[in-house]
Amino acid sequence: MSKGYTYNNPGNLTPLPNNQLWIGQNGSYMADQTSVSFSSMAYGIAAMMKQVHTNITQHNCDTVYKLYDRWLSTDTISKADKLAKSKRIATHLGVGVNAPMLDGNPTQLLELAQGITHEEIPETISINDWQAGYNEYLRQIGVWAAAAGEKPGLWVVFFAIALTTYILAH
User: Fold this and answer.
1) Are residues 90 and 96 in contact, defined by beta-carbon separation less than 8 angstroms?
2) Whose CA is closest to 31, among 50, 9, 46, 52?
3) Predicted pLDDT at 66
4) 138 burial type by CB count under 10 A (0-12 exposed, 13-18 middle, 19+ buried)
5) Cβ atoms 37, 28 nearer than 8 A
6) What local confidence, expressed as pLDDT, does residue 88 receive?
7) Residue 147 pLDDT
8) Burial class (CB in 10 A: 0-12, 13-18, 19+), 40
9) Distance between CA atoms of 105 and 109, rounded to whole angstroms?
10) Distance (Å, whole) CA 48 – CA 111
11) pTM more than 0.85
12) pLDDT tens across 65-74, in order?
């Protein structure tokens, strides 16, 4: 199994600056000491979605190529490989690789996270983990309070559509 899957970090996220921890980060690192470990896949997915949102809204990554180029900024990967991976993610989203279209809405973030994960780790993440990660992301940003017994509402519809699209594309 890949390290990203083993350590519940499907986006191979690195430590935050100033010794801060991601929500759900269990404090440990992957064997290479450059990527963090999460206590569950849901926390890893939620953190990944938050990082994608940050890259879009704070770092002007409004195209798939800009986003993935920033995502891989510390990796030693050729420009041609970055472009090829970006094209596969863009195809998954049904957009051009350099078309300005990223706005950071939760459904789009989920689709981007799924596309990036497909490039980062070879394993398939279960639908239950994607649902839990999406729910955790919405809880963290305050869209849906995960109070006991509360109905999840409309996000379930968006999640089902996004996940079905992803599954049919792969």
Assistant:
1) yes
2) 9
3) 92
4) buried
5) yes
6) 92
7) 41
8) middle
9) 6
10) 12
11) no
12) 999 888 887 6
